[in-house]
Amino acid sequence: MNARDIEPPRAEPAFETCDKPGGSASARRRWWTLLAVSAAQLLVVLDGTIVNISLPSAQSALGMSDASRQWAITAYALAFGGLLLIGGRVSDALGHRRTFLIGLVGFAASSALGGAAVNPEMLFGARALQGVFAAALAPAGLSLLSTTFTEPRERGRAFGVFASVGAAGSALGLVAGGLLTEYASWRWCLFINVPLALIAVLGTTLVPSDRPTRGDGRLDVAGALLSATGFSAVVYAFNQAEPLGWGSLKVLTMLAGGVLLLTAFAAVEVHAPRPLLPMRLLMHRLRAGALIAITLMFVAMFGFYLFMSYYTQTILGYSPVQAGLALIINALAALVGSTLVAGKLHGRVAPAMLILPGLISAAAGMLILTRLTPQSTHVLPVHLTPALVLTGLGLGCIMPPTASLATADMHQHEIGAASAAYNASQQLGAALGTALLNTIAASATASYLASARYATPSAASVHGYTTALTVAFGILLAAACITAPLTMPRTARQNRTQENQHRPGTRRPQ
């Protein structure tokens, strides 16, 4: 048995400081790193949802057509998802701190450009630029966090805070988007990024410098082209599946082309001397389990956010601001799960003891909502609040251990690639979840209207939502079943090995 299969993965420090590890100056620098990285994480996650709420106002102000308006969302998603792996490689080559700063400044500038847009083309271009810089910012930030916090207890707290920002960011984006659009202007949904980015830049001045990876400086050009076009094609197909349907020739062509390109990418990476994404990173059992868990969690949760927005507004009659405020319950529960549960238990229990209960908790929240009917009374206290709490706790428990595992036990020159793979998993899950579950809901709604006698639009909509959430419930259960064998057997072996090591005369396996 190899020792690597027994010992829990650890991150390798990317920098050295003159302070002793326990010194107060060193500790302050580490927590400034957490502040800066968390602010950047908020920027990236916030922009995934905040513009959605303001899009109708932006469309009216800039004269967008109905056919083109979706590019305000799609341009960001394509650039971000398509360039993540390249961003991770750039972060390794230039240094995580330097790449992080470049990403922050570029993201702030492109946000200001989008807020000042005078026509649709200017807005779409700015959103694409935001995605480009986010693709460098996200993996660089996660890499900085992983290399800064290596002591298990501090690492747990740091990843708990980082994950709480990510888990709550989508819900906060809906709230902030509604408030800014209603009381200020849709442009402030983009301008708000500038002060947040400046705060992160100030925090970064206290982050210790890291060492860029030494190498020949050559980029894996074939891998870069295949990954960018493959991921972009898949994300675009998911985005188009919502308005066009999964049977559309355009969707099927883009999806098949994307899968073929990503298959070719995997084949190229196996033989590349300096691969963009070393395939062996995905073969680590715990890391594979973490990536599968976070992907499927995002598939379910982004469909959940979509339906909460639709249900509260179209069925319950909430305003956009009220609908967003209802999701604050979910954000607070995610904060509790990531900081008070996962953050405290990190390093004390096996990752599976957080990931599996998190998936089951989120699945239970989905199951509660499948019991909704058009006649349901006391919906907020009886259905919505328990569901929002359980899904928030589940997401909060899952994100810290999966983010930590994705970047743990890595060589210095591979941390950026692992961080990019983790972010890419989230992006693909979010895009697939929104498209897949919305399509299921729309099909179930249409079928109900066609088959049920005296069916009302409200009843049909509720049927569509509960059908899609039943699928989301099944996805989370499937995620738990797939993740369990990737984590539990390894934990059992580790416990047996630790017991053997305490027996006299027992040798450590080599």
- The low-confidence runs, each spanning 5 or more residues with pLDDT under 50, are 1-22, 495-510
- The SSE order reads HHHHHHHHHHHHHHHHH
Question: What is the 3D shape?
Answer: globular
What kind of sheet is the major sheet?
A: none
**Domains counted in the coordinates: how many?**
2
Number of strands: 0
Q: Termini, distance in Å?
A: 7 Å
**CATH architecture identity of the largest domain:** Up-down Bundle
CATH topology category name of the largest domain: Growth Hormone, Chain: A
User: What is the percent of helical residues?
Assistant: over 70%
Work out the radius of gyration.
Answer: 23 Å
CATH H-level homologous superfamily name of the largest domain: MFS general substrate transporter like domains
Number of helices: 17
SSE class: mainly alpha
CATH class of the largest domain: Mainly Alpha
Mean pLDDT: 82
What does this structure look like?
This protein has 510 residues and is mainly α. It folds into 2 domains: 26-207 and 276-486, Growth Hormone, Chain: A (Up-down Bundle); 220-275. The protein contains 17 helices and no strands. It has helices spanning 24-46, 50-62, 71-94, 96-115, 120-148, 152-183, 188-191, 193-204, 221-244, 249-271, 285-315, 320-326, 328-345, 352-369, 379-407, 415-451, 457-501. Helix 6 (152-183) packs antiparallel against helix 13 (328-345) and helix 14 (352-369) packs antiparallel against helix 15. It is globular and about 70 Å long.
